[in-house]
Amino acid sequence: MSAPMSDPVHSVLDQGLRAMAGFGGDLVAHANQIGASLYAPPRLVVVGRLKAGKSTLVNALIGAPVAETAALEATRVVAVYQDGAPSRAEVVGLDGRRHPVPVVLGEVSSFPIPDEEIAYVNRWLPSAAIRDLTFIDTPGLATLTTKNEAATRRVLIDGFEQTRTASVDADAAVFLFDSAPRADELAFLKELPLSPLNTLGVLSRADGFGEGAFGRRDPIEHAAHHTATLARQLGDTVGAVIPVAGLLAQTSHTGALSENDARALASLADMSPLDLLDLLDDPAPQRVSVRVRDRLLDLVGEYGVLHGRHIAIRGAAALNEWLSRRSGVPALYSVLSSSLSEFAVMNRARRVLDKVDNLAYTHPARDRIREIAHSMRRHPAMLRVSLLGDLQRVIASDPQAPLVAELRTLLTARTSAAAVGLPDQATPQQVASVAQQRLQAAQARAVSTVTAAEDAALVNVISAYSALIGAGRR
Ligand SMILES: Nc1nc2c(ncn2[C@@H]2O[C@H](COP(=O)(O)OP(=O)(O)OP(=O)(O)O)[C@@H](O)[C@H]2O)c(=O)[nH]1
Ligand SMILES: [Mg+2]
I need a surface site. Which of 39, 150, 246, 283 has the fewest CB within 10 A? Predict the structure, then answer.
C-alpha cells in the first residue's frame, strides 16, 4: 500500500487496513487486496439501449477508437478500459478465472472462452484520459438481443448479489437515452446498486434529435431543451441529464479527421440546404465522390456536414474544435470529473467497507476485523459515505420517503448553511438553531419509521445534524 492520502476518507480506510494487516498471517494479503481497490481509480459504467451510442461515447472520452462501434457490430461483452502499459487485455470468466488475450495492432483478437462464459474483458492502454476514471462499456439493453442484455445485467446487478467475482464493481453510471426512456430501461436503472447522485443521464445522438439536422429546430438546442423535462421525470434515478453528440466528439478526440476531409467538407459550403440534402441521398453525387460523401457522413453525420462545412473553410483544427464543443462532451467531462467523481470515490469507500465486513463473516479473526470495521465507520469523515449508502437504500425501499430529499440536501450542500436549507450568509448560530430543530424532528420520526432503511438512515441524519450543531457552538 502506498502512503496515506490527504483525503480524510482515504486516510481512515488506509489506517484501518494497515491495522488489519498488522494482525499478520493471511490478513496481510487480504488487506492488500482490499487496499488495491481503494487506490485504483473509481469505475464509471456506460449503460443504455442497444445502439444508443455507448461505445462511441467511450471512444470519445478515452480519445482513442478502442471500443467497437461498427453499424452492424453490437458490443457483445462488458469491457473495462483502464490506464496501463503495455497495451494488453484479459478475459475474466464467470468462474473468476483470468485468461490473457492477444492484442494485435491495438485490436483485441478472438476470446479464448465463449461469450456466455465471460464476465468482462479487462483492457489496459496507456492513456491519460483514463488515469483518474476507469470506463466500462456494456452491451446494449434490448428486447431483441436478450443475450447482450444478460451480459450487462450479470456484472452490474445479478453479479452484485450472487457471484461477487463476476461484478465489475461500478462506482458511477452514465445512462444513455436516445429518446424517451422506456419502462424496461427505467426498471434497469432502479435496480442498479447506485444512488442518483452517482448516476448521470445522457440524451445521446443529440445531433439527430427531433426532426434531425435538416428539421426546423437545431436538434442539439432542441435536445438541450428536452433534457430539462427528462431530468424532472428521472429525478429519483439520475442526478442530471446532459445532451451529447458522441459521434462529433469521437471524430474530434480520436484524430480521425484529416485536412483533406476538412477541404472536402468546405467544398460544400456554398450549397443550399436543400441541394445538400439531395447530395446526401444521391446515388451518384456531382460535387464529391460517393466514397468521400460517405466518409464525411461517417465522420460527422448529417448535422456535422450541414453546419460544419462553413467552419471547415478555416481548416481541420478549427473544425475539430467546433465538433468537440458542439458535441457536449466537454460539458459531460466536467460533470464526470467534479460531482460524479466525488460520489464515485465515496461509493468506492463504501465498497471497501463492505469488503471488510464480508471478510469478518468468513475469517477466524472475525471479532478483531469487525472492531476495525466499526472504528472505520465511526470516524466523522465517514459520515458522508454512510449517508450516500442510506440514500440508495431508502430510495430502493420507498422512493417517495421524505428522507430522500433530506439526504440529498445533506450530501450535495456545499456549506453548513445549505445543509439545513439556509442561505449561505446565515451565521453559525442560525445554522445550529435550525439544525437543532431538524435533529428533534428526526428523533421524533425515528420512533415511527416504516422501513429498516429509514431507521438506519435516521441514525446517520441525526449524527449529521449533531455535527452541524457542534460546529455552530465552536
Ligand atoms: N449521428 C450520430 N450517430 C451516432 C452517435 N453516436 C453513435 N452514433 C452511431 O450509432 C451507431 C451505434 O453506435 P455505438 O456507439 O456502436 O452504439 P452502442 O450503444 O455502443 O451499441 P451496442 O453496443 O450495439 O449496444 C454507430 O453507427 C454510430 O456511428 C451520435 O452522437 N450521432
Ligand atoms: Mg457498443
Answer: 283
